[in-house]
Amino acid sequence: xxxxxxxxxxxxxxxxxxxxxxxxLAVVFSIIGLINFAHGELMTVTGYAICFALIWGxxxxxxxxxGLSVAMVAAFLMERVAFRPVRGASGTTLLLTSFAVSAIxxxxxxxxxxxxxxxxxxxxxxxxxxxxxxxxxxxIQLISIIVTLVMLLGxxxxxxxxxAGRAMRAAAEDFAVLRLMxxxxxxxxxxAFVISGLLAGVAGLLWVAQRGSVDPLMGALPVLxxxxxxxxxxxxxxxxxxxxxxLLGFIEVILQAYLPESLLPYxxxxxxxxxxxxLLFRPQGLLARKTLVKL
Amino acid sequence: xxxxxxxxLSGAFAVLAATSATAEDLVIGLATAQTGGLAPYDQPNLxxxxxxxxxxxxxxxxxxxxxxxxxxxxxxxxxxxxxxxAQELVDAGAQLIITPCDADPSIAAGMITxxxxxxxxxxxxxxxxxxxxxxxxxxxxxxxxxxxxxMLAAHxxxxxxxxxxxxxxxxxxxxxxxxxxxxxxxxxxxxxIMGEGTYSIxxxxxxxxxxxxxxxxxxxxxxMTSAYEPDFPAFIRQLRGAGVTTPILGSDGIDSPTTFxxxxxxxxxxxxxxxxxxxxxxxxxxxxxxxxxxxxxxxTIYIANGYDLGNVIxxxxxxxxSLDPAAIREGIAxxxxxxxxxxxxSYKGTMGMPLRSVSLVRIKxxxxxxxxxxQPDPADIPAP
Lengths: 295, 384
Hints:
The complex is a heterodimer of chains A (295) and B (384).
Chain A: H1 2-32, H2 39-55, H3 60-83, H4 91-113, E1 118-119, E2 129-132, E3 135-138, H5 139-161, H6 163-173, H7 175-180, H8 185-211, E4 213-214, H9 220-233, H10 238-258, H11 267-281
Antiparallel strand pairs in A: 1-4, 2-3
Chain B: H1 2-19, E1 26-32, H2 39-58, E2 68-74, H3 79-91, E3 96-99, H4 103-116, E4 120-122, H5 130-134, E5 138-140, H6 145-158, E6 163-168, H7 173-188, E7 192-198, H8 207-214, E8 222-225, H9 231-241, E9 248-250, H10 257-260, E10 270-273, H11 282-294, H12 301-320, H13 325-333, E11 338-339, E12 344-346, E13 355-356, E14 358-364, E15 367-374
Parallel strand pairs in B: 1-2, 1-3, 3-4, 4-5, 6-7, 6-8, 8-9, 9-10
Antiparallel strand pairs in B: 10-14, 11-12, 12-13, 14-15
InterPro entries (chain B): BCAA_transport, Leu-bd, Peripla_BP_I
Keywords (chain B): Amino-acid transport, Signal, Transport
Signal peptide (chain B): 1-23
């Protein structure tokens, strides 16, 4: 029983990171219909920013703020430079553009910074452990659960209580009508990207804290997981992305914990099978939006 | 008209480029990765090799008469692209081809070079089956997985460990086979393997795996894994976080600044690597030379490893005293006890995976402490 509870906690922590990532994809997709595969590179940018801030002698909290700010600026620039010119183009064009942005950034990181991972000195206090009865919870795991909850709450408040948030929700419903109401499309889309940048930054921080280094390709796998999570949840649905993230984390941890040893090498295959099964029963995802209106 | 001029001009350049290799130039084709997942390994190897080549050319070429000319093409860490690039290099007249730090693209390139009768050397592929999969013109330039594993197993037995747990990933031959070779060598010496856990490369989540290890009763005496970044730091952080203090054995993948940046978490970890700079060793001299030339100390053994590939090529071509690819192959295959900067290197009597010295290093207060160095008894090495 203790072990099961511990595994549930593990699932919550992993699912939280996936949820943050999937949410970042969903915020942008819900408005302009773009799956931003360069989202992972925003995580990488955050990692490098934190790394260099620390090398320049900033204390850790300031380095984190610098990292998150750089991620938001990078997301804003990404939209301005790469995605605005193709806004409203077909889904394929948008997708290919995002692949191109991702590939260009990776090659730039490899050839301008370093192909080898650069160590990031994470404060020793983040390696601590919290022990509650028989349960162990690493500091980073704990922080990732708390941060995920805070981010979800904050985003929810933002979307429901502020003008910009309401505009974003309206844009997700019907972009054309939003513009007829006199709201500036560009600022709404830019806001969505900045928020996705912040989400990627937070996820990137948690990811880097766990691995202790930044390397040019580190964004590839997380964005893939986020994509799967967003699909299970229902593309374009924000709550769906969160549900998908937690479900994916849960599936992966439970399979790792309870598959017999001989089947363990096929864990990812089983996880994808479960995802396919979910999609067979809910082809639109768990919490799909009824209609999908694009610009 | 302008266009015609351009075409003429570029044609002239093409002719120039093709003829700039004189009859006595050794043309080395590099089908290695400047971008993609193998770049972190191929780039430092290339930097080390380049340094050696510059030294050779400054001295008038190998044995004073064979200057080296390189053709470098990026493989993007893609096997199909590596084969394509290898074909282009063969067509361009390369007499020796260097392939990436991994068995898969090296096999892809090897299929081309073997058929063309041109020797190929992988920068640092460690899979011992690589030359068997390609043929007698394929070599590697790094201690094989089973050799590293045998050294680690001998150390485990000497340390009095009776039981071990291995953590593997089926995602690469290195992360799967090296711990399994360790298991074979350890069992042959009287140890017992209590279980085998798995992980996915890049996943960074070991919560479920660590919970299983923490629940084992009795605990294994030692845990052996070939996980490297980003998996190794995440694994050890989560393992120690779950209160498991079992000693860890690792392999050369964790010989990186990131590992040493983990502080107390990695205290006491022992891993195998391709070299250790003891006082007065050739490696220490190389590191000093590199630092003087580039202004920064080498951050990975792969730089010295690339430099040693230059030593291998120099010795093989000197012995062959010819630029005929078949003669160069003979030269490599018959090298014995060549003194490189990382230790002695022998190809004679092997199938193409060199016998090289392996160092076992313990992490102590963020620094290296040499545990053992040398080559294991060939009789102890598990068959590939």
